[in-house]
Design goal:
about 325 residues, globular
């Protein structure tokens, strides 16, 4: 039996609906915003094209790199600073004398309006060195540190280098080398370091061993990793007092050749390796040391030649 008329009418209505949807799709780049035109007429709004949409983060251009062009040591002098509200000079290379120096004498190498490279694990920046200024840790009103506009504005950095072109001469040691996990030593390393410390100070043999840093760096560029260990022997009767504390180096990782880099003079001090710096561009790094003590911290640079350690200057901040 043939179906009656109403079914054919439904089929026709369906066809009209499909045609209407298709017509709408052809003009899908426009939408009607009713009530926004004059007299309530529909206002046509263009959809944003792909070209006008903001680029995703991975496609956006990066910040312009810093201009670190210019001559480097040994063609020019250089200064390394630590930052504590101002630039504190800790080591330098005097090109005219072909000599490494340390401390306040380094400031005499600066001219006017010199550009310095500021760095921390959170950012890098260039700034202009200004007048002398007390660092936060300097108490006497005879400043030997230097201001910069950025530091005067309250920003904090860890270290700085002049000239900016020599910035690659500093290699900071990762901060996790002093963490609980990063400073963990093997049984062999603990045994060798303990025996070496007690050979230097036999009366410390009764102390409890504490490891404070384990860092591996290539000091002289020979391709082998030198091992640095910061450790102490704590007084068993007073765990806050050290019977002996120092920073040691195993050249090429050889524990049979342990070398004392520096030892503390006070009961609670701890010395660590903060980084390497090649001040004179000879390819052999000087050692940037950090000292933490009760109520503060200090820095200095020492030289290392043929297993002999030399001082460039005393600790900063009156330590």
């Amino acid at each position: 039996m043939r179906r009656s008329g109403p079914s054919r009418i439904s089929f026709s209505a369906l066809a009209l609906f499909v045609g209407w949807v298709t017509a709408c799709d052809k003009d899908s780049s426009k939408t009607a915003d009713k009530g926004s035109g004059p007299s309530g007429q529909a206002k046509t709004v263009e959809k944003p094209s792909a070209a006008t949409k903001p680029a995703p983060p991975e496609l956006r251009p990066e910040a312009k790199p810093l201009d670190l062009s210019g001559p480097k040591p040994p063609e020019v002098s250089s200064i390394m600073f630590v930052v504590d509200g101002a630039l504190i000079p800790i080591g330098c290379y005097d090109q005219t004398k072909d000599k490494l120096l340390g401390g306040p004498a380094c400031g005499q190498l600066l001219g006017s309006d010199e550009v310095v490279y500021l760095s921390s694990e959170y950012g890098k920046e260039l700034d202009t060195i200004g007048a002398t200024k007390n660092a936060l840790c300097e108490l006497a009103n005879k400043p030997t540190s230097f201001s910069t506009p950025i530091l005067d504005g309250g920003k904090a950095y860890d270290w700085a280098l002049w000239p900016k072109s020599s910035a690659s001469g500093v290699v900071p040691v990762p901060v996790d080398t002093t963490s609980d996990t990063g400073s963990a030593l093997s049984d062999e390393e603990i045994k060798a370091t303990t025996e070496f410390m007690t050979s230097l100070k036999p009366s410390a043999a009764r102390g409890n061993f504490r490891g404070r840093q384990r860092a591996q760096v290539d000091v002289n560029g020979d391709g082998s990793q030198d091992l640095f260990i910061s450790a102490l022997l704590a007084d068993p009767k007073d765990d806050e007092r050290n019977l002996y504390s120092g920073l040691f180096m195993a050249p090429g990782g050889d524990l049979n050749k342990l070398l004392l880099i520096d030892s503390s003079k006070r009961g609670s001090d701890v010395i660590t390796l903060r980084g390497l710096v090649d001040l004179n561009g000879d390819g052999e790094s000087e050692l940037w040391l950090g000292l933490s003590f009760e109520g503060g911290a200090a820095d200095r640079i020492v030289t290392l030649h043929a297993s002999k350690v030399g001082d460039l200057a005393k600790w900063t901040c009156g330590a």
